[in-house]
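COMPLEX REQUEST
Ligand: alpha-D-galactopyranose
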Amino acid sequence: MKKTLLLLLSLLAVSAVFAQNPRRPDAPLPKWEGIAETPQMGWNSWNKFATNINEDLIKATADKMVELGLVDAGYVYLNLDDGWHGERDAQGFIHEDREKFPSGIKALADYMHEHGLKLGIYSDAGTNTCACYAGSLGHEYQDAFTYALWGVDYLKYDWCYTKDINPIGAYTLMRSALRAAGRPILFSICEWGSNKPWEWAADIGHSWRTTGDIGVHFLPVPVTYDENGRPRWRPQSVLDILDQNEPLRAYAGPGHWNDPDMLEVGNGMTVSEDRAHFTLWCMMAAPLILGNDLTNMTEETLAIITNREVIAIDQDPLGIQGLRLKKEGDLQYWFKPLSDGAWAFCLLNAGPEDTTVELDWESLDFTDQLSGRSPSFSETNYQAKDLWNASVKPFNTRAKGKKRGQTVGAKTTVLVPSHDVVTYRLTPVK
Ligand code: GLA
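STATUS: Structure written out below.
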């Protein structure tokens, strides 16, 4: 009896100490959990408008996101990129540029929330942003609290002007600040893959860029050299990014995604290239952040970005980034395991000629080491749904005694146009 009482008392004493001191005072705060369980979706101002942003444009974009069904399709974040900033005041607090945003960012966030959207903002771990506005270095907590007070939901945090700064320390500091500020904010790390963030950022951010900046290019831009023989900066193309982001698939998962940069759909590539770009980002479980002018886009662009079945590949709850099974000349064979035993299959033709391909499903069998799954094409019959059927010949499977569109023992002949994809959702037939 005495012993039990003693034990109880000491337990009480220990928990009292923990209640007062739940963590070491110098321990950084954890990241916000439960955000980006599937890759984040939204729009960002940079790819189309650079720093030429203002309240009218952002509100018009929000209105279009609602009107065109983009919000319903899942695009809920509207993100201001570089160039919203005014000056810091005497106490060091950052303010918006009141010429560009006369009603202020708080009012803009309220507008988003009233329309079923969320507001994203942009800053930088260094002294300055990439476009030379004020960075957050030395003001991390002040900035995080300011964003939280404004009602911001998303922070993209860049890596310009960070000489001698330790990236893990800098991103952990902002993670702590965001947590301390008390408002759940998605933390999008943007250091271009320079310090291999996939190896250290899963507990720090909700996504991390894996590459340099994307440009409106499907094919790689040729390297040129400056007068000192050093290669000049060049934008990354869709094909470059596929090669850089694919090998990192094991690092991605719910709440922590590889970010191969924002979409360039609708910004000047051909419709085929846009379709291929969009589909492959979905195959790679990438954040889907639109980057075009939503107030002025073609029907084809809208059809691409709102293809629900392709978006569902990206947003599949299993959260496994797809893999490139093989490259055969200009052809690339991509698979992504989906929930309920399904697979997404995407055949990319990166070459200049339209190509007819015979898919012998059994010969495409493999085991994915990451998910431990195999399509088992010789035993499992799949119903194959063509997700972009407007762009290819009708599905054409031939196998004796098989229904159209089933795979065991079947071969499927498809025409893959140049710089385009053929994409199927393969659902096992019970
Ligand atoms: C960097 C980022 C871009 C964009 C610009 C803004 O280059 O990688 O995505 O945010 O800065 O200046």
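REMARKS: Residues 46, 81-82, 129-131, 158, 190, 192, 213 surround alpha-D-galactopyranose (CB under 6 Å). DSSP finds eleven helices and 18 strands in the chain.
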